[in-house]
């Protein structure tokens, strides 16, 4: 499964989940490509969008293979995250 949140200008891929026994069979790649095709089909003419995600530790090469760049890079600052617990 995959989950995308966005407003038409900025998108965040929140979850890409493939059961361990099915990983390495192209399912995750297919899910991400489906999401990216959806985004691409909905970009206004002359527009641009930004797609972000936070990779699970060690899964960065999977996303890099699909064209995502580790941040920071020349165009972006550091990825940031804050977890709030209600314990």
Characterise this structure:
- The chain starts with a strand and ends in a 22-residue tail after the last helix.
- It has a single domain (2-65), classed as 3-Layer(aba) Sandwich (Aminopeptidase), CATH 3.40.630.
- The chain contains 2 helices and 3 strands.
- Strand 1 (2-6) and strand 2 (10-16) form a beta hairpin.
- It is α+β, with helices and mostly antiparallel strands and 87 residues long.
- The model has no long low-confidence stretch (mean pLDDT 91).
Features:
87 residues; three-stranded mixed β-sheet; alpha+beta; Aminopeptidase
Distance between the termini: 29 Å
What is the strand arrangement across the widest sheet? 1-2-3
> On the 0-100 scale, what is the average pLDDT?
91
CATH architecture group name: 3-Layer(aba) Sandwich
Low-confidence stretches: none
- Which CATH first-tier class would you pick? Alpha Beta
Over the alpha carbons, how many angstroms does the gyration radius reach?
14 Å
> What share of the residues lie within helices?
10-25%
Structural class: alpha+beta
As a percent range, the share of strand residues is 15-25%
Q: Can you tell me the CATH topology?
A: Aminopeptidase
Q: Tally the helices: what do you get?
A: 2
Return the string of H and E elements. EEHEH
Overall number of strands: 3
The biggest sheet, with number of strands, parallel, antiparallel or mixed sense and barrel status, is: 3 strands, mixed
Whole-number tally of structural domains: 1
Shape: globular
SSE map:
Layout: E1 2-6, E2 10-16, H1 27-41, E3 50-53, H2 60-65
Parallel strand pairs: 2-3
Antiparallel strand pairs: 1-2
């Amino acid at each position: 499964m995959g989950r995308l949140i966005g407003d038409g200008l900025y998108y965040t891929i929140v979850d890409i989940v493939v059961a361990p026994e099915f990983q390495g069979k192209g399912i995750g790649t297919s899910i991400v490509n489906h999401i990216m095709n959806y985004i691409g089909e909905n970009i206004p003419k002359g527009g641009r969008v930004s797609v972000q995600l936070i990779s699970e530790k060690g899964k960065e090469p999977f996303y890099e293979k699909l064209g995502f760049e580790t941040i920071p890079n020349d165009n972006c600052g550091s990825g940031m995250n804050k977890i709030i617990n209600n314990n």
